[in-house]
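We were asked to recover a plausible sequence for a given structure. The inputs and outputs are reproduced exactly as logged, with field labels preserved.

PROBLEM: sequence recovery
POSITIONS: 264
GIVEN STRUCTURE:
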């Protein structure tokens, strides 16, 4: 029997026909509850599509430490792991796919509309001008995410935009917002610049705050950091984009038109 890693998209409205078919024929559906926030991807939806399926709300711990059990179930029944966005944008799911293949279990990946794709679409920035994406996590005792600044700086030196994914700790009820991210990013850059002896540059950069990309209440705000940080946003998921030092004229127009940029 197969294991299906199914991308649910950024909300229930973005479920593909293939996803609906597989949920409807599944014996067990694991709903990923930690990767991202996807409105409508929940037990009620799965029950409507397949009243007979056993539903399991799957934390990161379950998907990682319980992966062997999931693979063993897929040897005798149809198992769906339903993941917000695209199923292979998290390493946990790649590891599960590989474990299934090693065990001789048929494993199929069903792509979904990802949050990354939705953010690019919301901004109008050119996709081939994005460099390496990076996650900005909350600081903890004895740790600050200075590596995020390194990625942003390297991308900007190469003339590329940076998609900054914001920390989601859904099991703790925490989800980083655009204003929080802007404040943290600027403070990290100032600290690192002071320590290493270079001039901060992000206070003069054009950045983009995106909330709930692709959803009806989605918001995109572009401008200088203080403008983006002071704007109002709907609840998470939120994402930040730090643009390249130079925008293509079409990108500048897109940010003005789609995200209200006054500094582009």
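RECOVERED SEQUENCE:
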């Amino acid at each position: 029997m197969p294991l299906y890693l199914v991308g649910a998209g950024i909300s229930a409205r973005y479920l593909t026909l293939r996803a609906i078919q597989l949920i409807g024929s599944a014996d067990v559906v694991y709903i990923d509850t930690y990767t991202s926030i996807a409105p409508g991807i929940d037990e009620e939806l799965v029950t409507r599509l397949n009243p007979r399926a056993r539903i399991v709300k799957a934390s990161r711990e379950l998907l990682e430490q319980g992966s062997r059990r999931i693979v063993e179930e897929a040897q005798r029944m149809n198992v769906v792991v339903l993941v917000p966005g695209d199923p292979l944008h998290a390493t946990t799911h790649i590891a599960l796919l590989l474990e299934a293949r090693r065990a001789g279990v048929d494993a199929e990946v069903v792509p979904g509309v990802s949050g990354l794709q939705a953010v690019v679409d919301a901004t109008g920035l050119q996709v081939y001008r994005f460099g390496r994406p990076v996650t900005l996590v909350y600081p903890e005792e004895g740790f600050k995410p200075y590596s995020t600044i390194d990625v942003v700086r390297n991308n900007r030196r190469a003339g590329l935009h940076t998609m900054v994914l914001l920390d989601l700790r859904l099991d703790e009820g925490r989800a980083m917002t655009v204003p929080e991210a802007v404040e943290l990013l600027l403070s990290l850059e100032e600290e690192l610049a002071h320590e290493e002896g270079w001039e901060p540059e992000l206070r003069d950069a054009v950045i983009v705050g995106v909330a709930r990309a692709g959803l009806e209440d989605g918001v995109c705000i572009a401008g200088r950091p203080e403008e983006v940080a002071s704007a109002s946003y709907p609840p998470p998921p939120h994402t930040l984009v730090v643009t390249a030092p130079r925008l293509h004229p079409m990108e500048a127009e897109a940010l003005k038109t789609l995200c209200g940029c006054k500094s582009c």
